[in-house]
Amino acid sequence: MDQKRYEIGLAKRRKVLGGAYVDRALQNVDDFNRDFQRLLTEYCSRERSILNLGMIAALGKMEEFATHVRGALNNGLTPNEIRAALTQIMIYCGAPIGVDCFRVARPIIAEHQKAK
To answer: Residue 33 phi/psi, 5° resolution?
Structure first.
């Protein structure tokens, strides 16, 4: 494990997902999932946020999608960049998934913009 990359990733993960979310995940670390949590922590990035939105949308996991829309905003993606990603998701995954994604993302983005 690269300790410096882990610490940077942990700070980013807390910023993106919130301290409570990360603390809950890390409280459940054991021998079985330790490496998984380490990878999640070391590899947080803006670009991965875009990929996560596409993959989670394709799976149709809208609750997790909502978490990652918040994370993407906290990770530096703009509403316009998220809109562009959602448009691509709609093109490649179909209109029903696109509709769900826009429906889920819209209030999250509105809330984020009010908080600024």
So the answer is: -110, 5
Beta carbons within 8 Å of 11's beta carbon, 6+ residues apart: none
What is Dmax (Cα atoms) for the chain? 43
Task: Give 56's DSSP letter.
Answer: H
Per-residue pLDDT of the chain (116 residues; tens, 9 = 90+): 678 888 888 998 898 888 999 999 899 999 999 999 898 888 777 788 899 999 999 999 999 999 999 999 988 899 999 999 999 999 999 999 999 999 999 999 999 999 97
Whether the Cβ atoms of residue 115 and residue 96 lie closer than 8 Å to each other: no
Please report, as a single letter, which amino acid is at residue 111. E
* Model pTM score: 0.74
Quote the CA–CA distance of 104 and 101 in Å, as a whole number: 5
